[in-house]
Amino acid sequence: QVQLVESGGGLVQPGGSLRLSCAASGRINSIYVMGWYRQAPGKQRELVATITNGGTTNYADSVKGRFTISRDNAKNTVYLQMNSLKPEDTAVYYCNHFQYWGQGTLVTVSE
Predict the structure, then answer these.
(1) Tens digit of each residue's pLDDT (9 = 90 or more) over 32-48
(2) Among 18, 25, 73, 75, which has the highest number of CB atoms less than 10 A from its own CB?
(3) What is the C-alpha separation between 107 and 15, in angstroms, rounded?
């Protein structure tokens, strides 16, 4: 079993920044990437970014250059630094590891 707990969501104005955290506990398997996904109202869940145990990253085109994923293996924590936020970034953001998902944290970008 793996438990994933996200934090750091909230309300931010366009152009602002937020940092999301995902604390993982349990049987983490280093073979599998850690990732952030998001789901906006009325839309399907989509990939935001992933990171391997070795630090290789992958981003959705819509967030490249604005978001940065990182991980602290000693703390079993993954971060998502989000800069230059846009209203279209509004969504519930989920942390993922293999088949496991966190409960999600809401990010709202609005005036």
Answers:
(1) 799 999 999 999 999 99
(2) 18
(3) 13
